[in-house]
Amino acid sequence: MSIVVVGSLNMDLVARVHEHPRPGETLLGSEYQTHPGGKGANQAVAAARMGARVRMIGRVGRDGFGGALLRGLEAEHVDAREVLEAGSPTGVAFIAINHRGENTIIVSPGANARLRPEDLNNRQFANAKVVLLQLEIPLETVEKAAQLGKEAGAVVVLNAAPARELPKTLLSKLGVLVVNESETFMLTGRLPDSPDSALGAARELSSVVPSVVVTLGSQGACWAEGAGSGHQPGFPVQVVDTTAAGDAFVGALAVALSEGLDLPSAVRLGAAAGALAVTKAGAQPSLPNREEVEALLRQAG
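^ thats the sequence. predicted structure below, dont judge the formating
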């Protein structure tokens, strides 16, 4: 198995509004749509569309949303046999998208909160080249997955989203840390609002984790590791919906690392995937395939 993803599965309930509501304000939006989502499942699908063999580990409820999410993973050729059922409802994300394609998201974890360390074992991580983690499941489960991934000899990649403080015991198990602006601020106390400031933050964090990537939306991403640091500019595209752009980035990055590419090349592949994801609506529906990403890279030169 090339990539093992341990993380969340949600059904996304999406509505469009002209502007996001202010506190106390009620707005009329579009008819809502449902899309399969959850950072874990999104990144699993992103990696599968980029050509990797992917196993998903997580939990869903015994309800219609859970069944739909499992069928969706199977349709994307993601091995979902390690996705367990829980007595609580499947996780749901409530997403509002304004006319600029910017989103606000409220996540109700549901069954994701029931994924426990004891649900994980060495067999699930056998032959993994990359173990991919996020923070929409209990932190102790993330740490157990990181430990099992490290013991299996895999590169452990943590996309530290949503933002929260991280214990040193978890950071010590990571090979690659991927953070956006708000997550970087949570970990360093500095807000990376430019490539220069993001490079500084990435270098600071690389003293704790061997390889660090700071994503900057349309400004691309910065990376730092022992061999050096650098900035990958963004790819100019027409923004429709930014939902899952980060997941497209991380999924493609994980695939590149599983194929033995160096960090700058992996960041470039991730940046191209993330750019393409914002040109379409929805989370998993927006995730590009390998041919689309390679075409954008050829076009960019």
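The mean pLDDT is 95.
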